[in-house]
Amino acid sequence: MLTFEQSRLLKNLPTQFFASLVGKVNRIKAEGHDVINLGQGNPDQPTPANVVERLKSAADNPNNHKYPPFRGKRNLKQAAAQFYKREYGVDLDPEKNIAILFGGKAGLVELPQCLLNPGDIMLVPDPGYPDYWSGAALANAKMEMMPLTEENDFLPSYDRIHKEVAEKAKLMILNYPNNPTGAVADVDFFERTAAFAAHHNICVCHDFAYGGIGFDGKKPVSFLQVDGAKEIGIEIYTLSKTYNMAGWRIAFAAGNPSVIEALNLLQDHLYVSLFGAVQDAAVEALSNTAEAAKKISDMYESRRNAFISSLHDIGWHVEAPKGSFFAWLKIPSGYTSESFADLLLEKAHVAVAPGIGFGQFGEGFVRAGLLTSEERLQEAASRIKKLGIF
Ligand code: PLP
Question: Which atom of ligand 1 is nearest to the CA of 246?
Fold first, then answer.
């Protein structure tokens, strides 16, 4: 059999750090151990029933058996605009300000290819969601990392970005509530972001993947809520987390018309839009599930409370996340994030993601997903207690 060589483009892609974690978990499971897997980011609960029902009825509609309209169905773009008006008081034009995406990941990976030429600078949070790196690699862009440190509440410090870098940067990625740190951003931070970006002509892409998951009575802030944001950038909103729809692959981008047009243009060449029935079901999710979405967020809050208090009980003094479904746990001294994650997996059969997999500034932490029942989360803490580290 001939082996065909991969293109330079593929060879240039970053290695998928977390593929090795999956391998390690599978090896321990194959030995017959019951692993509590907090290492991944896959919602564990089903999609609200009315959304599933809408998919079923929409699948019977012959109109949905044809090619969908190239840039997505109008009813979905309208529902997305109404969602932003209802949830955040933001006015959006369904045609000019909204682009339908095959999941947030697709939009995040497409965006650098839409706006950057080889060698152009993209500002990326460190630690951050590794797919940002994939987007940069596919566009042959140069990443400049913005450290997110505990001292600065895991927000980037714009005054630490070198003037020459800021002058040259064309795109900045942000993500709050944040994966992996569980930090949130406030209006003041987004106002400073919009001002910095406008001053340097940088397009802001706010990845609002965990926009539906905020704790302690605080609803996560949309970047588009602040003055000037719609002019200086976009927000990517996925249905994956807010409505437990990760398998459906549907999201949208909202904001600056030239960026929306660029995303639509690239997608005109890559796809014909998503299956119409999935788009109809997404209309149902955005329009009629506010209560279900609140319940989902409340469930993560109650898991967070159970998990963090049981970690405190065993003597592991970690901070509680303010949003997202991740806890960012500072590790004891004497370990790297990888050696500590290996120890938890091998000796306690608890899988967590080592912080280094999210970037250099992720070192010193591990990420645990609140993606199993409170009982299992408490069980994870009691297994860790038996290691006698804390
Ligand atoms: N952004 C962040 C920070 C994420 O954690 C994820 C998923 O884990 C995504 C984007 C992508 O979500 P999806 O492609 O399911 O919309």
Answer: 15
